[in-house]
Amino acid sequence: MENDILNIRDMSIHYSTPRGTLKALRHVNVSVPKGKIIGVVGESGCGKSTLISAIIRLLAPNANLASGAITFDGKDLFGLSEDEMRGLRGTDISMVFQDPMQTHNPVLTIGRQMTDIQYRDDMTMEQKTKRAVDMLTQVGIPDPAARLNQFPHEFSGGMRQRIAIAMALMARPKLLIADEPTTALDATLEVQIIKRLEELQADIGCSILFISHHLGVIAELCEEVVVMYAGEVVEQGSVREVFHSPQHPYTKALLECDPGHIKEKTRNLPTIPGEIPDLVNIPAGCAFAPRCPRVFDACHTQRPEWTRIKEGQHALCHLAGKEAVQ
Amino acid sequence: MTDTAIVKTRGEFADVIYHLVRDPLGCTGFVIVLAFVFAALFADFIVPYDPIALNIKERLQGPSLSHLMGTDQLGRDTFSRVLMGSRVALQVALPTIGGAMFIGILLGMIAGFGSRTVDNAIILFFDTIRSFPTVMFALAVVALVGPSLKTVIFVIMMTSIPTYGRVVRTQTLSLRNSEFILAERSLGASVARILGVHILPNVMGPLAVLAAMDIPTVVGLEAGLSFLGMGVKPPTPSWGSILNDGYTLIRNTPWIIVAGGIPLILTTLGFTFLGEALRDVVDPKLRGQK
After folding, report:
1. What distance in Å separates the CA atoms of residue A44 and residue A211, rounded to the nearest whole number?
2. Between B111 and A267, the higher pLDDT residue
3. Interface test mutation site (partner A, options B10, B180, B287, max chain A beta carbons within 10 A)
4. CA separation for the pair B141, B128 (Å, rounded)
5. Quick check: B288 pLDDT over 70?
6. How many Å apart are CA B246 and CA B252, to the nearest integer?
């Protein structure tokens, strides 16, 4: 607790929709220790985006906090006023988005955007420009001073993502939320961006909450990983333990689907059969039961317990710890 | 990728002008508009005669070297009156467009960024104004408060607000949920900053085009109202009142009506060309591709 920069306890986020209450997140516990990189994986629709929106408190108007709390650096985020929250964004909590082609204002030069976002700092325009140049140098943009006068469309996707990272880290935040920052980029760029993020993280000493569905990247970058499914955390632990001896059948299935893990040549890539359950009518027992290869009677009626496997590894499964999930 | 050797030293505005004059259409428009503005600003110094001085001896003379566009039925020099008329046209066009744009931006942004109720209320206001035919509305107001330049400006401004407001509203609506606005919010930008720094520059491009295209309409409306005797009071020269002086005498002395009509046609052409060229230039993505 003391060492955590971000602590999410028992958080549930519900959306009111015409069909009823959509329980997008249910009793989620995630903690990000100071100076660590935590990965979050899960397929589309598992609540990753809702989790991020909740942390920076930019939730959709129809969302509400049903239970739990988020503590950031000792402050209860949901207890802050809108102005206090805005004061944290960009200074203590920053964010990098998925699609670098969309994250910059198309009609303003990069320099204008980078200096403008420093509006809270009492500095002259030259100092702000210098800081922007420094940040661009750090993320590896060549000839940064000249490039400040260019518009976003004059940069490639990889460069735009670096600029987005530069902008997010400008105020040396305590927590950086990276929402699939490399998904829209090709593989070589992905490696470069990841390396750059690692260096910057070591330099600034911030924590990173890294969202991705690329397991390889998570394994490369993160120390701990949180596996989410249908709005719940189903497994959590050190990357090493979770990737080598997954305890939840969903984690195991996810790892099997990763093309990087498949040794033999195949025409058909493996998939997890079935779909994510309807979050308006959630099944009574385990949410993964309808798709689980190891399902048994209790799974349909009883909610599984959050079970401690060993130091630093937990899973939400009836079978967890009882026998190794093969 | 642009060669890094080409370092931009021009500002944004200068860049727009630079690309504008390189386009033949834009250059033509730009020159006409400059001439129009120059005539309006310095009319006092370049008129050869006093535009309202009567000279009955020389009435209804044809175009000559001493009277480039002839004289009217009261012996006033038509060329001087046309020059002075550009001042009235600009006097109406600038405050009208400026005011309508300002109020339009304000209301449009509030409508686009505010709640649905506010949006509906402002849209209702726009639709109410738009449901009046401009000329009819103008005639009604003039009948109530009497003809004057201020009345003309007020009426045209009021009826132009929805044109700008709607464009701003649509742009704001489509931008408010875009990812770069979300990114700015996640970096701590306030609503005022988002509207002023990020949405405003995005709407200014389309608005500048709209304004350039709208100026001829406004100038034409003013001329129309003056022609009907509902605009500027005589003897102040306006292109509309020159047309009015000329049209009764069209069979014998056609130069008066021609002199009143040509500047109207030219300004319309000039501003339309300018607007067309602006359309390609205001978007930084399209700029410099031709």
Report:
1. 11
2. B111
3. B180
4. 16
5. no
6. 10
> How many CB pairs (< 8 A) connect A and B?
80
Question: Are the C-beta atoms of B29 and B276 separated by less than 8 Å?
Answer: yes
Does residue B190 belong to the interface with chain A, where contact is any CB pair within 8 Å? yes
Contacts with B138 (C-beta within 8 Å, 6 or more apart), sequence order: B151, B152, B155, B156, B159, B221, B225, B230
Q: Taking a C-beta distance cutoff of 8 angstroms, is the pair A75, B252 a contact?
A: no
Architecture of domain B12-281: Orthogonal Bundle (1.10)
With an 8 Å Cβ cutoff, are B179 and A142 in contact? no
Q: What is the pLDDT of residues B162-204, one digit of tens each?
A: 999 999 999 999 998 888 998 998 888 888 999 999 999 899 8
ipTM over 0.95: no
Peptide bond before residue B235 is cis, with ω within 30 degrees of 0 = yes
Residues with Cβ within 8 Å of residue A266, at least 6 apart in sequence = none
Is the torsion defined by CA of A200, A205, A206, A212 positive or negative?
Answer: positive
Phi (first) and psi of residue B98, to 5 degrees: -60, -50
* The pLDDT of residue A326: 44
CB contact under 8 A, A108 and B193: no
| Structural domain boundaries in chain B | 12-281
User: What mean pLDDT comes out for the span B230-247?
Assistant: 83
Q: Which of B2, B182, B201 sits opposite A58 (nearest CB)?
A: B182
Q: Which amino acid is at B126?
A: F
- pLDDT at position B200, please? 92
The secondary structure of chain A, three-state, reads CCCEEEEEEEEEEEEEECCEEEEEEEEEEEEEECCCEEEEECCCCCCHHHHHHHHCCCCCCCEEEEEEEEEECCEEHHHCCHHHHHHHECCCEEEECCCCCCCCCCCCCHHHHHHHCCCCCCCCHHHHHHHHHHHHHHCCCCCHHHHCCCCHHHCCHHHHHHHHHHHHHCCCCCEEEEECCCCCCCHHHHHHHHHHHHHHHHHHCCEEEEECCCHHHHHHHCCEEEEEECCEEEEEEEHHHHHHCCCCHHHHHHHHHCHHHCCCCCCCCCCCCCCCCCCCCCCCCCCCHHHCCCCCHHHHHCCCCEEEEECCEEEECCCCCCCCCC
Give the pTM.
Answer: 0.81
Q: Does residue A177 carry a pLDDT above 90?
A: yes
A112 → chain B, closest CA residue: B197
CB B191 within 8 A of CB B227: no
Tokens encoding B81: 């009156």
- Residue linked to tokens 């920076």: A56
Instruction: Please indicate if any CB of chain B lies within 8 Å of the CB of A62.
Output: no
